[in-house]
Design brief:
Blueprint lengths: L13 E5 L7 E7 L2 E10 L13 E8 L11 H4 L4 H15 L4 H4 L3 E10 L4 H23 L11 E9 L2 E4 L3 H4 L4 E8 L4 E8 L6 H26 L1
Parallel strand pairs: 4-5
Antiparallel strand pairs: 1-2, 2-3, 3-5, 6-7, 6-8, 8-9
Length: 237
């Protein structure tokens, strides 16, 4: 039995509230159970120096957690004077995941920055950030198309992410914190709407796993991503 009482292949309740903030070109508050992430997308008429003049657009991301997103207060990274390694790793993951679903030629030479701020954490914050980040990105691109700044839709395919793992010897979908902290195997799966893989992060956290177990987790991930993409589509319709 899972601590939450969910079935092995059951997601936490998912909701996506769009236009959550006033000023950003695109914004969404995604809730996956008790994990809540605010995602905002900002459009700028500039690109990083390494692609300047290429005609290509760029999508990047930043990620952070509020001090009381967790059970005990975390020190703000700004007060420490630098970002932690985990933060840098996650925001790079978000950026490259979102770029995989974008035609950068159609986007044109501009940058969209997706900021993902974790308001409350209960496992799966990077997955929620990617899933909600895509919604914010979609909304920002919609505004560019409505204004005529972008002619051809650069959004190739929805992008979503879900965690799966082996908890108490059983493969489970969408780990919350009690499961994540005790899982023998933990994985994050980033996919497109056409079920193409963008990235898979899997590690044994105290027990090895077999190829058959990995395939089972992949099947669970496909199910979870399909549900998330349905939620994205409904939110942006």
């Amino acid at each position: 039995m899972r601590p939450s009482g969910r079935a092995l292949d059951e997601m936490r309740p998912v909701s996506i509230e769009t236009d959550f903030t006033k000023h950003a070109e695109g914004s969404a508050l995604i809730r996956m159970g008790d994990t809540h992430v605010l995602c905002t997308a900002t459009v700028e008429d500039r690109v990083p120096p390494f692609i300047k003049g290429s005609g290509l657009g760029w999508v990047t991301a930043e990620y952070g957690m509020l001090p009381r997103a967790t059970n005990t207060r975390m020190r703000r990274e700004a007060s420490a004077g630098k970002q932690g390694g985990r933060t840098i790793e996650i925001q790079r993951l978000i950026g490259r995941s979102l770029r995989a679903g974008v035609d950068r030629v159609a986007l044109g030479e501009r940058q969209i920055t997706v900021d993902c701020d974790v308001l409350q954490a209960d496992g799966g914050t990077r997955c929620a950030s990617i899933t909600g980040g895509w919604v914010a990105l979609r909304l920002a691109v919609n505004k560019l198309m409505k204004s005529g700044d972008v002619i051809s839709d650069p959004m190739l395919d929805p992008v979503a992410a879900i965690s799966c793992g082996i908890y108490a010897g059983q493969p489970v979908l969408d780990l919350d914190y009690p499961e994540d902290s005790e899982a023998g195997v933990d994985g994050n799966f980033i996919m497109t709407g056409s079920r193409q893989l963008i990235e898979v992060q899997m590690s044994a956290e105290g027990a090895t796993y077999s190829r058959d177990q990995m395939n089972t987790l992949m099947d669970l991930a496909e199910k979870g991503v399909a549900e998330l993409i349905a939620a994205q589509t409904a939110a942006t319709a």
